[in-house]
Amino acid sequence: SAQRRVNELTVMCREVDRGCEWKGRIKQYEDHCNVCPFMMVPCPALGCMTSVPRNQLSQHQESVCVGRKLACSFCNGKLRAANRDQHLRDTCPKVQLVCPNQCGAVDLLRDQLASHRKTCPR
Q1: Spatial separation of the C-alpha atoms in residues 29 and 36, rounded to whole Å
Q2: How many CB atoms lie within 10 A of CB 91?
């Protein structure tokens, strides 16, 4: 039948420009696409909208993904990379601040600020 002849045709992977050298029968193509290291795949991390070649997904997730998990360098709290700046700016208890009353104290930790305000000379 015509369908059987089509299924037996040899095709190349559509990711040949990225380096895939696979050639096979049309009927095997879908299986190849599910494992092809050069096929673009979406990053599964929350908030990440990036697609990368399958063979670069691990590197992406470990080094540049906005959804990767980080430990805050000040408080060691766990957070997503996308939230790092906001965490440092607004909530990290161990980030150093200056007294908002301008008393001269410059090395207060955020979690010490409330007790400092009780004794602040200003």
Answers
A1: 10
A2: 14
